[in-house]
Design goal:
The complex is a heterodimer of chains A (207) and B (610).
Chain A lengths: L4 H4 L6 H18 L5 H29 L5 E6 L10 E5 L7 E6 L12 E8 L11 E9 L7 E3 L5 E9 L4 E6 L2 E5 L6 E11 L4
Parallel strand pairs in A: 2-10
Antiparallel strand pairs in A: 1-10, 2-3, 3-4, 4-5, 5-6, 5-7, 6-9, 7-8, 8-10, 9-10
Chain B lengths: L9 H6 L34 H23 L10 H23 L4 H24 L2 H16 L1 H16 L3 H19 L4 H62 L2 E2 L5 E2 L1 H30 L10 H22 L5 H19 L5 H5 L1 H9 L4 H30 L6 H6 L1 E3 L15 E3 L9 H12 L3 E9 L6 E7 L2 E6 L5 H10 L11 H12 L2 E15 H6 L27 E7 L3 E3 L4 E3 L6
Parallel strand pairs in B: 7-9
Antiparallel strand pairs in B: 1-2, 3-4, 5-6, 5-8, 6-7, 8-9, 8-10, 10-11
Helix pairs in contact in B: 2-3, 2-4, 3-4, 3-7, 6-7, 6-8, 7-8, 8-9, 8-10, 9-10, 9-11, 10-13, 11-18
Classes of the chains: A alpha+beta (207), B alpha+beta (610).
Chain lengths: 207, 610
C-alpha cells in the first residue's frame, strides 16, 4: 500500500500534532507579516517547528526529574539475564581496624519481599564512604538468584568478581561502575559464568 | 583458638586415637565387623571377672569349632570319628553354656550371644555322636557306657545327697564346683545315649543342679545388683566436679584473668570456658554410663538418676555464664573484643553438641556476654555494624549450602533407611550345621537374635561400598582425626576428618571479615567460623567402609568421656522397652566422606569434582 507523502516526511515529532501547532502559529505569523515571500514562510515554518520540539523536550525532562533514581544492574552471563531495575550501594565501617565492607544489593535486606533476578555484591575496601569508592576497583563476592525457584549462584570459593567504580553523580546520588568477568557456581550444579556487567547504584541514605 | 592444626602433636596424637581403643582397661574392646565377624562381642566388665569370662568363652568356642570342623570332615566315614574328642567337646560345651548364662546374670550381652553360638555347636557334636553310634565301635561304646553308669548309680546318688547337703548349708560355691565337675563327666558319657537311655542318670543330677542354680541365681543377682549400684554411683562423681572445678576456675579468672586448666596448662577466659564445656561433657558421659548400668541390670530405661540431663544442662549453662561474668570483671577494655569473639566461638561449639540448631548456650550466656561487651564502650556499636556488614553474605551462603546439598544428595539414601530395609542375603559365613539365612531379612536388625558374627557379616555384605548420608558430624576434639555422627535409631557413625576445606573456609572467613587478628562478632558468624575450622558438618556423605556390631548397653556403659556427644546431651536417650536391654544391638558405620554440608558451605573431596 502506498504511504502518503506527508508521513514519509515526518521527522521524529508527530507530524499531525506539529501540523496542529503550525495551524495555530502560521496564521499569526502571516497576520504579523502580510505579504511574506515563499522563502520567508519556509523560514517561519522551521522556527515554529523548533519551538514545538523544544516544548516537547522540556516536558519530558520535567517528568523524569520527578521520579528518584532506582539504580540498575545489567549482567552479561552465560545465560541471558534481564536488566535488574534496582541497585543500592553502601559502605559499612565496622571501625575496629578491620577492612570496611562494600555492599551492593538489588533488594531491601530488611524486608522479606524480593524481586527476581536479585543480586548481592559484597567486598572489602579501605574507603570509608560511597564517595570514596570513586575510581576504585573492589574484588567482590557475587551472589545471584535468577527466579524465586532458584537456583542460588555465587562466586566460586577462592575467586571474585571485580567491580570498578566511576565517579559519583552528585545530582542523583548514584555511583556507576562496571563488573569484570568471574567464575560462578550454581546450587543445581548447572554451568554458569558472568562475562561482564554494568551497574548504577543509588547511594544509601547517610552513606 | 585456631582449630586448623590437623597434624597432631604428641599429646594430641595420643588423644586422636580411633574411638574403639579409648575404653577403660577393665573391658576388652573388640566387636564383630564385616571383615572380622569372628571377633567377640565386647564386654563392659561392670562385675568383677566378667571380662575374663567373656574372653575365655570366645576362646573356647573357637577351639571347639575348630575341633568340630576336623571331625565334620570325616562324617562320610563315621568310623573315622573320634569318640574321645566328641566326648570331651560335649563336656566342655555343657559347662560353657552354663558360664554363658552366668554372664547374662553379670549383665553382659555376650552371654546370650555366646549361647546362641554354643547351643547349635553342641547340637552339631550331638549329631556327630549319633553318627558314631551307628558304627560297630559306637554300639560297643553305648553298651559299655550304659553298663558303667548303671554300676555307678549308687555312687552318683550318694554324691548328689552330699551335694544337696552342701546346698542346705549354704555352701553354694563349693556345691557348684563339685556339681560341675560331675556334670562334665556325665555329659561326656551321655552324649552318645538317647533320651530314654540317659534319663535315669541325668534326671536326678539335673534335679539337684536345678535346685542349686535357683539359689545361686538369687544370690548372684543380689551380689551383682550391689556391685552395679556401686559402679553406677562412681559414674555420677564427675557431676560434682563440674561445679567444684568451675568455682575454682571462676575465682581465678575473676582475679587474674587466667585459670589453671589441665596438666598445669593455663588459659584465658575462652580456654576456661572450653574447659567447663569439657567438664559438662564428662558429667554428661558419666550420667549416660550410670543410666546404661541401671538399664542393663534392672531393665528400667527411665530410672530416676539425679541430676537429669536437662537439670545438668541448666546447671552447666549457669556455670558457663558465671565464667563469662568473671571474665567481664577482670578483662581490661582493650582485650575485650578478642575475648568476646573467642568466647562466641566456644559458645557455638557447645551449642552444636546440644543439637544442630540449638541456641541454648548462646541464649543462656547472652546477659553475661552483654556485660563483657559493655566494658569496651565502642564495642556494642561495632557489633551492630559487624552484623549489618555480614548478615547478607551469611544468609546467601546458608541458602546456597542447603540447596547445593539437596542437589548433591538427590539420590542419596540415609543410613537409617538402608539399615532397616528388608533384602535378600547374598552370602553368609555360617557354620555348615547352621541354617542358611532364608528370604528377605532386615539388613541391620536392632535385636541380637542370632550370633553377632553372622549378623555383622550379613549386614556388611549388603552395606559396605554403598553410598550413604549421615546427619550431624561432630569432631571429638579440636585435633582428633575422627568425628562421630551421634547415636540415633540403633546406630552411630565414625567418620575420618579428611575432607580438605581450606579454600572454602578461607573464602567464608573473608566474606565475614574474619582473620587471625579479628574474630567474629555475631553468633551466626561465630557458628560459621567455629564449625568451618572444626570440621563439624550438618551432613556428610560417602561410601560405607566397614560395619561394626556392638551391644547397645555395652556401648553406653563403656562410653568414653571424649565421645560424650555420641549420646544426647541435655535429654534422656529413649530406649526400646519391648526387648530385653541385653539383647539390643548398636551398629557403628565407618563412612569415607566424599562430600559434606557445613551450614554455610559445601565441600567435596578434591579430585572428584562437584
Amino acid at each position: 500500500m502506498l504511504k502518503p507523502n506527508r508521513l514519509r516526511n515526518c521527522r521524529g515529532i508527530c507530524w499531525r500534532s506539529a501540523r496542529g501547532a503550525l495551524a495555530l502559529v502560521l496564521p499569526a505569523a502571516l497576520l504579523m507579516n502580510p505579504g511574506c515571500s515563499k522563502a520567508e514562510i519556509k523560514e517561519k515554518l522551521e522556527q515554529a517547528q523548533a519551538k514545538v520540539e523544544a516544548v516537547a523536550e522540556s516536558t519530558a525532562k520535567a517528568v523524569e526529574e520527578r521520579l528518584p533514581a532506582t539504580g540498575s544492574i545489567t549482567l552479561d552471563m552465560s545465560k541471558p539475564v534481564e536488566e535488574i531495575k534496582r541497585a543500592e550501594v553502601e559502605v559499612i565501617v565496622i571501625g575496629d581496624g578491620r577492612p570496611n565492607v562494600v555492599q551492593i544489593v538489588t533488594y531491601d535486606p530488611e524486608s522479606e519481599k524480593r524481586a527476581y533476578p536479585c543480586v548481592l555484591l559484597h567486598g572489602t575496601t579501605s574507603a570509608t564512604s560511597a564517595s570514596g569508592l570513586s575510581g576504585e576497583t573492589v574484588a567482590c563476592d557475587m551472589y545471584f538468584q535468577p527466579t524465586v525457584a532458584g537456583p542460588i549462584v555465587m562466586t566460586k570459593p577462592g575467586t571474585s568478581v571485580s567491580v570498578t567504580f566511576r565517579s559519583i553523580n552528585s545530582e542523583d546520588n548514584t555511583l556507576a561502575g562496571t563488573l569484570g568477568g568471574g567464575e560462578l557456581i550454581s546450587s543445581d550444579n548447572s554451568p554458569i559464568n558472568v562475562r561482564s556487567g554494568d551497574l548504577v547504584a543509588v547511594v544509601k541514605e547517610g552513606n | 583458638m585456631q582449630y586448623r592444626n590437623y597434624h597432631a602433636r604428641p599429646y594430641a596424637r595420643f588423644m586422636a586415637i580411633s574411638l574403639a581403643s579409648l575404653i577403660g582397661a577393665a573391658s576388652v574392646w573388640a566387636n564383630p565387623t564385616g571383615q572380622q565377624p569372628e571377633r567377640p562381642l565386647a564386654s563392659h566388665g561392670t562385675i568383677a571377672g566378667a571380662s575374663e569370662k567373656v574372653t575365655g568363652l570366645y576362646k573356647l568356642y573357637n577351639e571347639e569349632y575348630a575341633t568340630f570342623q576336623q571331625q565334620y570332615e570325616r562324617r562320610e566315614v563315621p568310623t573315622k570319628l573320634s569318640d574321645r574328642v566328641i566326648a570331651k567337646a560335649a563336656g566342655r560345651l555343657w559347662k560353657a553354656r552354663r558360664d554363658a548364662e552366668h554372664l547374662t546374670l553379670m549383665g553382659e550381652p555376650a552371654g546370650s550371644a555366646l549361647n546362641s553360638q554354643l547351643s547349635p555347636l553342641f547340637m552339631a557334636f550331638s549329631d556327630l555322636a549319633f553318627a558314631y553310634r551307628s558304627t560297630p565301635r559306637g554300639q560297643q561304646l553305648v553298651q559299655k557306657t550304659i553298663t558303667k553308669l548303671k554300676r555307678e548309680l549308687p555312687k552318683l546318688t550318694k554324691f548328689l545327697t552330699q551335694a544337696d547337703g552342701a546346698l542346705q548349708k549354704g555352701n553354694l560355691e563349693i556345691f557348684e564346683k563339685l556339681m560341675e565337675k560331675k556334670g562334665i563327666e556325665l555329659h561326656e558319657q551321655i552324649i552318645f545315649l538317647t533320651a530314654s537311655e540317659k534319663r535315669p542318670f541325668i534326671e536326678p543330677f539335673n534335679a539337684v543342679m536345678g535346685k542349686g542354680d535357683t539359689l545361686l541365681t538369687r544370690q548372684r543377682k543380689q551380689q551383682y545388683m550391689e556391685q552395679a549400684k556401686q559402679a553406677m554411683e562412681k559414674q555420677i562423681a564427675p557431676v560434682a566436679l563440674l561445679s567444684s572445678e568451675t568455682a575454682r576456675i571462676r575465682r581465678e579468672i575473676a582475679s587474674a584473668g587466667t585459670a589453671t586448666l589441665v596438666e598445669g596448662t593455663t588459659g584465658g577466659p575462652a580456654e576456661a570456658f572450653a574447659q567447663v564445656c569439657k567438664l559438662w561433657g564428662n558429667a554428661s558421659a558419666g550420667l549416660v554410663r550410670a543410666r546404661a548400668i541401671v538399664w542393663a541390670f534392672t531393665g528400667r530405661g527411665e530410672a530416676k538418676i539425679e541430676p537429669s540431663p536437662s537439670e545438668l544442662q541448666t546447671t552447666a549453662i549457669a556455670e558457663l555464664a558465671s565464667v563469662i561474668d568473671a571474665a567481664a570483671s577482670s578483662t581490661p577494655p582493650d582485650k575485650v573484643p578478642q575475648v568476646y569473639a573467642d568466647l562466641l566461638k566456644q559458645i557455638t561449639v557447645m551449642d552444636r553438641r546440644l543439637g544442630a540448631y540449638s541456641k541454648a548456650v548462646s541464649e543462656g550466656c547472652e546477659p553475661a556476654m552483654k556485660k563483657l561487651a559493655a566494658k569496651d564502650p565502642a564495642l556494642s556499636m561495632r557489633i551492630e555494624s559487624y552484623r549489618r556488614a555480614t548478615s547478607e553474605p551469611l544468609k546467601w551462603r546458608m541458602l546456597f549450602a542447603s540447596q547445593h546439598a539437596k542437589t548433591l544428595g538427590n539420590s542419596l539414601r540415609q543410613a537409617t533407611s538402608m539399615m532397616g530395609a528388608k533384602t535378600e542375603v547374598p552370602s553368609h559365613k555360617r557354620p555348615a550345621y547352621a541354617r542358611a539365612p532364608n528370604g528377605k531379612t532386615v539388613v541391620a536388625p536392632l535385636t541380637l537374635n542370632a550370633p553377632a558374627g553372622w549378623l555383622a557379616y550379613e549386614a556388611a555384605v549388603r552395606l559396605v561400598g554403598k553410598p550413604v548420608g549421615e546427619r550431624r558430624m561432630l569432631r571429638l576434639t579440636p585435633t582428633s582425626r575422627t568425628a562421630v555422627v551421634p547415636f540415633d535409631s540403633g546406630h552411630y557413625g565414625n567418620v575420618p576428618v579428611s575432607l580438605q576445606s581450606d579454600i572454602e573456609v578461607s573464602d567464608l572467613k573473608s566474606a565475614i571479615v574474619v582473620d587471625d587478628t579479628y574474630g567474629p562478632l555475631s553468633v551466626e558468624a561465630a557458628d560459621a567460623v567455629s564449625s568451618a575450622e572444626l570440621h563439624d558438618y550438618l551432613m556428610v556423605a560417602g561410601p560405607i567402609r566397614e560395619v561394626h556390631l556392638e551391644a547397645l548397653v555395652t556401648r553406653f556403659i563403656a562410653l568414653p568421656d571424649v565421645a560424650y556427644a555420641l549420646a544426647p546431651v541435655g535429654r534422656i536417650m529413649m530406649v526400646e522397652d519391648s526387648v530385653s536391654p541385653l539383647q539390643q544391638a548398636c551398629w557403628r558405620l565407618d563412612v569415607d566422606p566424599v562430600w559434606a554440608q557445613n551450614k554455610y558451605f559445601t565441600v567435596a573431596s578434591k579430585g572428584k569434582g562437584r
